[in-house]
Amino acid sequence: MTVHPILAALRLHKAAVLLIVLQIALTLAIIANATFIIGQHIQRMNRPTGVDEKDLIRVSQQWPAAPAGDDAAAIEQLDVLQRTDLATMRNLPDVQDVAASTSIPLLGGYTTGDITLHASRTGIAVHVAYYYGDQHLRPTLGLQLIAGRDFEANEIRHGRAHADSPVIIVSKPVADALFPSGNALGQTVYQDGNPATIVGVVERLQTPSRSDSNWAYHSVLEPMRVDDAYAGYVIRARPGREQAAMREVSKALVAVNPMRLMPEPWGGAHAFSEIRAKAYRSDRGIVLLMSVIIVILLCVTAAGIVGLTSFWVDQRTRQIGVRRALGARRIDILHYFLIENLLIAGGGALLGALFSFGLNEWLMTHYEMTRLPVTCVALGVLVMLVLGQAAVLLPARSASKVPPVVATRSV
Amino acid sequence: MFGYYLELAVRSLRRNPGLTALMMLTIGFGVAASMTMYSVVHGLSADPIPGKSSQLFMPQIDSWGPGDRFHDEPPDALDYTDAMALMRQHRAVRQSAIYPIGPSLMPTDTSRNRSPIMLDGYAVYSEFFPMLDVPFHYGHGWSAADDASQLPVAVISDKLNRQVFGGGNSVGKTIDIDNHDYRIVGITREWNPQPRFFDVQGGYYSVDGPDVFLSFQHSVAIHMISAGWDGCRKGTSDPQGDFVGLQRSDCVWIAYMAELDDAAVVQRYRQYLDDYAGDQQKAGRFHWAPNNRLRDLPAFLVYEHMVPSNIRVSQLVAIGLLIVCLVNTMSLLLAKFLRRSGEIGIRRALGASRRAIHMQFLIEAGVIGVSGGVLGLLLTAVGVLCMDQVLSSAYADRAHIDTSLLLLTLLTAVIATLLAGIYPTLRASRVPPAWHLKVQ
After folding, report:
1. Strand pairing of B56-60 and B136-139?
2. Quick check: A110 pLDDT over 90?
3. Residue A176: partners with Cβ closer than 8 Å, 6 or more residues away
4. What HEC string does A276-323 produce?
5. Domain endpoint, select from B261, B287, B303
6. Which of A263, A354, A383, B40 could form a disulfide with B399 if both were Cys (CB 3.0 to 4.6 A apart)?
7. Distance from A342 to chain B by nearest Cα, in Å?
8. Contacting B residues, span 119-178, partner chain A, CB-CB under 8 Å
């Protein structure tokens, strides 16, 4: 079948054709960008933390009216409180392991610093986030130790948070950035000028920050119980006993010392799954919102194509009848409308591809947005073509059912 | 004539119920999506203190220098040195340095609770209360003299008053905060402006209002740590719990607000800030020319991007959806109207003017707009109620369904549909008289 008669027919309906082309183009531009945004958020939500998240519990709390400053007696007092808590929780039936811990992945709060190869802080500097904790931190979080050893009990210091421990455990990306040849274990590096020996390397550990950055997995474990107003713990519950352990922990902590602040939403005992859900709440929200908009958009455009084609079929009933009478088969009529739609949708998709990149360009200059990949647009083009063909099928079929005898009737 | 055209429109719409429903749904969904997002953005960018916001100014002083500026902007809060200098020189009508605190309400022998309660509060100067028109239930704020003598005085919220004292006039009673006794001088009414513009960096959206206000100078004297963001320059270490270290640092952890009544006063204050920075440069503290900003509250909140960019992008996408819906309605109307060329031709042949045809079809478009708008109203209400599935409650709470939103939704729907109807009606009115009769 030649395309020429179709084009000639379309020329008679310039305005309607132009409108439907414009609609397809706009739809494509929006769904390509929205899909891209959805993809980015889903990718963020699927980032692994490196932590064994099942049966992991976080306790966040604060001591009221905690003394500030470097008063040794005050620091000792805070440490006693913390050690009492740790001992109390360790004895609970559903608790497998417990560790002092300033932060965990996805929690948000963190401190950072630079690790260098030289005391003079020249050369390679790797930006890292610090996780302070005791010798139980690595096993409780369930981090995979790929080289070296855990901290020994006698290596754990306590006091105000300072990244100046003589021994540290680093995540693999930190080890690789400092020692590309892979011999990080046992090496001495400098944390703000203070020497530290790498005694262990863990496979993966995301920083507590939720944002995307080129150092999102640059984490360092510091063997230190931090004595501060804020005291946090991580707990590994016995398998399947997460909820029971959470209840036990909350009760036991208040019983052993009621003078503590655990205000919701951040305070108290929370399962890691809750922390994950909360951290990615807005990402999930945007995915939901964009998905709803995409679905409405596709429905509207499909319905628009059905409506317009039905109108055309209706208008051309006589012509179709004449063609059938002159020997055209039903399949020819069907093909006519399918090809007509393919031309319109194709034109719309081409224009839409341009719109997609334009919209993306505009979003990039005004909002935090990255470049739209061509595959996203290509997928969008495909979706629009398939949508067009699917939408036109119903009216095209009814067109093909027009009997040849219509040609002989005068309306 | 209007009544007759209305009747014609309804009859015509009834003749193709499928097409009519499609157009209504299209308008309804398009309008609802964009109005839902509009209500969120409108709620988030609403003026937190109407009538006063244009007189409130947030001075920004470049204490970090060119190397640490972001887009050539000075830091958006003050360090302790600058905040205290500005307070001492006291050049505005009213002013206050402010920092967020999170002290604890200690349990007493008689209280039911054995555990302390964390309070959400601010350390402020006496002028904070009249400057921000804080409403009082009982009592009032403290005096400038109380500030100077660093008295342990407190203004508490009505909620905290009910929690601790069971309500009533508790002015004069004492309350134990962080093991210090504070004399209550005032109890505020429910006061929770959104966002909390008096917090550092334009604040944040919160479901509950602040519980307590303590005197800034007293809080500093007892080294009450800041519960907020320390705002330390990149590459410098955050003093964290070390209060004296924080006071000496150039970390910007203090929000500063000044009340300036008219343009001349604002101009003088601007000059004053530049003179201050110039003096600091002469004294050797700043090694760069003055680079200050003095934005009023609305401008400051815009500068701080209080509406998250993903919400703005979502709003844009929703508007995009509305545009597609309009284009769709336009092509459907065009198809529908032109299909009735015969009818139009006969009407024209019988003497109907172009104007009359125009009116008739515009009214038909209007009917679709109104009915689509009513559907849009329902869908907008559903959308706003569903927002807490999508956004955190502090954001979702900002979206309200009120009369103005409902009217705006209906208006948007009608105007949008009429716009979409302009071209199709124009085409319909150009159908020549009896054209159809000739063909047959």
Report:
1. unpaired
2. no
3. A182, A184
4. HHHHCHHHHHHHHHHHHHHHHHHHHHHHHHHHHHHHHHHHCHHHHHHH
5. B303
6. B40
7. 18
8. 178
Question: Which are the contacts of A291, defined by CB distance < 8 A and separation ≥ 6?
Answer: A38
Instruction: Please name the member of B102, B116, B321 whose beta carbon is closest to the beta carbon of A293.
Output: B321
User: Which of A17, A21, A23 to mutate against chain B (most B CBs within 10 Å)?
Assistant: A23
pLDDT of residue B440: 47
Mean pLDDT to the nearest integer, B420-433: 88
- In a shared domain, residues B196 and B245: yes
Instruction: Look at residue B48 in the predicted model and tell me its pLDDT.
Output: 92
Number of cross-chain residue pairs from A and B with Cβ atoms under 8 Å apart: 150
Give residue B264's pLDDT band: very low, low, confident or very high (50, 70, 90).
Answer: very high
- The answer to whether the Cβ–Cβ distance between A37 and B313 falls below 8 Å is yes
**How many Å lie between the alpha carbon of A324 and the closest alpha carbon of chain B?**
21
* Calpha distance A24→A351 (Å, rounded): 9
Interface test with A, best of B313, B326, B382, B431 (most A CBs within 10 A): B313
Structure tokens at A375: 């595959």
Confidence of residue B305 (pLDDT cuts 50, 70, 90): confident
The Cα–Cα gap between B354 and A319 comes to: 30
CA–CA gap between residue A322 and residue B424 (Å, rounded): 29
CB atoms closer than 10 angstroms to residue A290: 26
Instruction: Provide CB contacts within 8 A for A4, sequence distance 6+.
Output: none
Within 36-95 of A, beta carbons closer than 8 Å to B belong to 37, 62, 64-65, 68-70
Query: Looking at the predicted structure, is the pLDDT value of residue A49 above 50?
Result: yes
| pLDDT of amino acid B273 | 94
Average pLDDT, chain A: 90
Provide the pLDDT for residue A370.
87
From the number of C-beta atoms within 10 Å of its C-beta (0-12, 13-18, 19+), residue B229 rates as middle
Regarding whether B349 and B245 lie in a shared domain, the answer is no
d(CA A226, CA A102): 7
Interface probe for B, chosen from A36, A81, A289 (most Cβ of B below 10 Å), is: A289
Which amino acid belongs to residue B414?
Answer: V
Residue of B82, B30, B12 lying closest to B383 (CA atoms): B30
In angstroms, what separates the C-alpha of A111 from chain B's closest C-alpha?
Answer: 8
Sign of CA dihedral A46, A49, A50, A56: negative
Residues B82, B29: one domain?
A: no
Enclosing domain of residue A297? 4-45+282-408
DSSP codes of every residue in A317-349: HHHHHHHHHTT--HHHHHHHHHHHHHHHHHHHH
Same domain, residue pair B226 and B312: no
How many other C-beta atoms can be found within 10 angstroms of the C-beta atom of residue A188? 11
pLDDT at B104: 92
pLDDT exceeds cutoff 90 at B231: no
Please answer yes or no on whether B243 and A69 come within 8 Å at the CB atom. Answer: yes
A229/B313 Cβ within 8 A:
no
Q: Which chain B residue has the Cα nearest residue A297? A: B321
- Give B414's contacts (C-beta < 8 A, 6+ positions apart): B366, B369, B370, B373
Domains contained in chain B, number: 2
Q: ipTM of the predicted structure?
A: 0.86
Closest Cα to residue A63, out of A253, A262, A266?
A: A262
Full domain range(s) for residue B315: 2-45+308-439
Phi, psi of B263 (to 5 degrees): -60, -35
- The whole-angstrom separation of Cα A207 and Cα A217 is 6
Calpha distance B360→B363 (Å, rounded): 5
- For A228, name the nearest residue in chain B, comparing CA atoms only: B241
Q: Residues A237, A344: one domain? A: no
